[in-house]
Design brief:
There is one protein chain. The protein is an alpha/beta fold and 483 residues long. The protein has 4 domains: 163 residues, FAD/NAD(P)-binding domain; 42 residues, no CATH class; 126 residues, FAD/NAD(P)-binding domain; 106 residues, Enolase-like, domain 1 (2-Layer Sandwich). The chain contains 15 helices and 21 strands. The N and C termini lie far apart (73 Å).
Length: 483
């Protein structure tokens, strides 16, 4: 077959890849190819953000109802309708059918090519027996995959990863979760409510959600324990054994009971469960991508500059967006990078200068927002106190309990905490963390304050509405003023 030529070739059809392709050709006659070996829409649409939040939202609603007089009496005798929750989840994932995503790509002029892509030269990508050539750019947006530690017997036991947890079909009664990060805590939250009676988190470190302020992990831990889950810190797996291992399909129990040999704490060193979920980090999906043809190592994260151009490659033709560059492993940040990347590609293709902030990815340098949809929610943006001090900033921290009229009105058992990390030199916020029900609604205001470097004196005039939880902003400013 003759070589096929496009202006832009994007490897990886997740949200980052889709956005990079769309922005690179928007308003022009340029052409783009999107190469995907699984489902167009990627991890977020089918195995991460969308299904996980579809599973967590009913848990949140039920929790609020259970603490609302006039409602709690009607719901306390019942739990979730598991099959209805799973059916709603399947609606959001379109039953793992990506046809609507492909229709969108077609509608904006992006050609979808199915198969595994490999770089085979400068601006050259091979997919099966098809050779694709890019006039301007190749974008790598392959994301990451779940890491499974090299523990004796673990991989042979066919453990669950995040994909099984989000696409759960059969809820194990006894579950062990390896890890204490976002995936581990969120999955524990929904699987317990769906019917996992015995949930044990095996955490290598000394706290949950290690990249957040310590109080956030502590408050999540308190709730997990209150709901009957066991959290064991300072632990690791020594060995795993399983009888009747069977590849029963994603989200189903993969065989007989699993026996874990646990070391490092005073708990039972032999733990037997019905399933084990490994939530121990992510690995960049770059192995076998042919990076050596661009003069790069054949695996690992791709280091990029703030134009999202891969460093160490001559000619400004290779880009990397999303999780694969390791800068901020979050869907919204990948999409943000992709928008910047697409604009950069378009400008370079048209010979325009890269002047102005729209061509520079700056938000993933200490301005990253994130929400952990646990019970309670954790919403944060920017640097923690420890990160700020490590970066050489002279900071002060203002932290208070969320005790305002809006919180009390939202539910009777409301408890939460908020903190601001303030750079003394500029009197601006460099980090903010909120923990409590529905605090995700607070984080964008904090993000605007961090990104906009809004002085605290100016924030006095951003008056929060009453009675809402956002009144906590006023209480934070008052606490700082009282010092």
């Amino acid at each position: 077959m003759a070589d096929e030529e496009f202006d832009v070739i994007v490897i990886g059809g997740g949200p980052a890849g889709e956005n990079a392709a769309a922005y690179a050709i928007a308003g022009s006659d340029r052409t783009a190819a999107l190469v995907e070996h699984e489902l167009v829409g990627g991890e977020c649409s089918f195995w991460a953000c969308m299904p996980s939040k579809a599973l967590l939202r009913p848990v949140e609603v039920l929790g609020t109802a259970r603490h609302m007089p006039g409602v709690e009496e009607k719901v306390n005798a019942y739990g979730l309708d598991v099959q209805a929750v799973l059916a709603r989840r399947d609606g959001f994932t379109n039953n793992l059918d990506d046809s609507s995503q492909v229709l969108w790509a077609d509608s904006v002029g992006i050609d979808v090519i199915r198969g595994s892509a490999k770089l085979t030269g400068v601006r050259e990508v091979t997919v099966g027996d098809r050779v694709l050539r890019a006039r301007h750019a190749v974008v790598v947006a392959t994301g990451t995959t779940a890491s499974v530690p090299d523990v004796p017997g673990l991989r042979d036991a066919l453990p669950w990863t995040s994909r099984d947890a989000t696409n759960v079909r059969e809820v194990p009664k006894r579950l062990a979760i390896v890890g204490g990060g976002v995936v581990a805590c969120e999955a524990a939250t929904w699987l317990h409510e769906l019917g996992a009676d015995e949930v044990t988190l095996l955490v290598r470190g000394s706290g949950l959600l290690g990249r957040t302020e310590p109080f956030a992990g502590e408050m999540v831990e308190e709730k997990l324990r209150k709901h009957g889950m066991n959290v064991r810190f300072g632990t690791s797996l020594a060995a795993v054994a399983r009888s009747d291992v069977s590849d029963t399909g994603i989200g189903r129990v993969h065989g007989g009971p699993v026996t874990l040999t646990v070391r490092g704490d005073d708990g039972d060193p032999a733990l037997t469960v019905d399933e084990i979920l490994v939530a121990a980090g992510r690995t960049p999906a770059t192995a076998g991508l042919g990076l050596e043809h661009a003069g790069l190592p054949d695996h690992g994260y791709l280091s990029v500059d703030d134009h999202l151009t891969v460093q160490g490659v001559d000619g400004d033709w290779l880009y990397a967006v999303g999780d694969v560059n390791g800068r901020a492993l979050l869907t919204h940040m990948g999409k943000y990078q992709a928008r910047v990347c697409g604009d950069v590609i378009a400008a370079r293709a048209e010979g325009r200068p890269l002047d102005g902030p729209r061509f520079v990815a700056s938000a993933d340098h200490g301005q990253v927002p994130q929400v952990v949809f646990t019970t309670p929610e954790v919403a944060s943006v920017g640097r923690t106190e420890s990160q700020s001090r490590a970066d050489g900033l002279d900071v002060e921290v203002v932290a208070i309990d969320i005790d305002v009229a809006g919180a009390a009105l939202s539910r009777d058992d409301y408890s939460g905490r908020a903190s601001l990390v303030i750079d003394r030199a500029t009197d601006t916020i460099v980090g903010a963390t909120f923990v409590g029900p529905d605090v995700s609604d607070l984080i964008h205001a904090a993000t605007v304050a961090v990104v906009g470097r809004v002085p605290l004196d100016t924030l006095w005039h951003a008056v929060p509405s009453y009675p809402t939880v956002s009144e906590v902003w006023l209480r934070l400013l008052e606490a700082r003023r009282a010092r």
